[in-house]
Specification:
Number of domains: 1
Structural class: mainly alpha
CATH superfamily: Winged helix-like DNA-binding domain superfamily/Winged helix DNA-binding domain
Helix content: 55-70%
CATH topology: Arc Repressor Mutant, subunit A
Order of helices and strands: HHHHEHHEEH
Strand order of the largest sheet: 1-3-2
């Protein structure tokens, strides 16, 4: 569909479009960001990130905490490590996991703030009815 067919009044600001075009994300960045959000789109991984945002944990403790098998936790941790969302730390024969860095902590916290704010405003609207 052509842009001017979707608007009642066609308006083009070539200066704004040219300026924004140079600032848009590169294809590589778009793909990487989409992959990160895709990984975050799984409830098991979100639960794991929630737990790891609160404390460094080994596979056994994470499995017990979330009611999952160690094998399932290990599989999900492999995916999260591949996306650099979690980081391992070896202590002897034990491996402990935590969120990779402050960016992931902030991304998770901001996403949670957004969801909780939406839920609160939805409840307030329902109560007003």
């Amino acid at each position: 569909m052509i842009a001017d067919e979707t608007c009642e009044v066609f308006h083009l600001d070539p200066v704004k479009v040219a300026s924004l075009k140079t600032k848009l994300l590169s294809e590589g960045s778009v793909g990487a960001l989409a992959e990160t959000f895709k990984v975050l789109g799984d409830t098991t991984r979100v639960r794991m990130l929630d737990a790891l945002s609160r404390s460094e944990l080994c596979v056994c403790d994470l499995a017990r905490l979330l009611g999952l098998s160690e094998s399932a936790v290990s599989h999900q941790l492999r995916l999260l490590r591949g996306m650099r969302l979690v980081r391992p730390r070896r202590e002897g024969r034990m491996m402990f996991y935590r969120l990779d860095d402050h960016h992931i902590v902030r991304l998770f916290a901001q996403g949670l703030d957004h969801v909780e704010e939406r839920r609160a405003s939805s409840k307030a609207r329902t109560a007003q009815r």
